[in-house]
Task: structure prediction
Amino acid sequence: MPNFPPGVGKTAIIGISNPQPLDLTCLVELYLGSSKVAAFGEVTVIAGTRIELEALVVMPSVEGTYPVSIQTSVKKLTGFADVLIKAGLPRPSPCGDMGDVDGDGLVTNADAYLIGQYVIGSKPLTHDQLRRADVYGLGFVDATSITDAMHIGQYLAGVIPPDVTGGRDTLKVCIMTSFSCHYCGAIFTTHDALWAHNLAVHHI
Ligand SMILES: [Ca+2]
Ligand SMILES: [Zn+2]
Result:
C-alpha cells in the first residue's frame, strides 16, 4: 500500500474505460475515505476508448489508512439512467493470470478496455489473451456479450453481485470446478484444459 506523509500533495491519475458500444457521459468524483477530494464535472468517454483524468490530492493531516474510490454517476447511457457505478483501482488477479489481458501483472481497467476493443471488432486478441479475458469461465469472449469486461469492472470496484461468486470477492472463473466447451459441449475440470482444447480442436 502506498504510504505518504500527511499534508503532501500527490497527483492522482484516474483511468476510465468504456468497453461498451455507446458513448458514456458521467460525473466523476474522487474520494479518500469518505471525503471528496476531487471533482471533474461532466466527463464523456467515447465508446470503446479510455481516458485518464488527473487531480492534485493533498494527503489528510491525520495519519491513517484511506481507501481510494471513484464515484461515477452515469448521466447518459441508453437504457441506464442515473446509475451509480464505482470504477476500481488495479488489483492482483485472484487466481493465476486470469483477468490480466495485457500481461502487466495486474487486473486493471486497461484489461477491461482491451476486451471492449475486441468485442467491438477493433482489435484482435491472441489465444492466450482470450483465455485470460474469459473471467466468466464460459470458454469464449464473443462479440455479442461484454460480460467479461463488466465482470472485471465489478472485481475492481468490489461490487460483484452475490449470486455470481457466492458472496466471495473473486472472479467467477476462479471458483468454477467444471468447464463446458462452448463449441462442442465437452467437459473439463480446469479452465486451462478447456482453452487447450479450444486451441487444438476449434483453432481459437
Ligand atoms: Ca493487466
Ligand atoms: Zn470443443
Notes: Residues 178 and 189 are 5 Å apart (CA to CA). The chain has a mean pLDDT of 82. Residues 100, 102, 104, 106-108, 110-111 surround calcium ion (ligand 1) (CB under 6 Å).
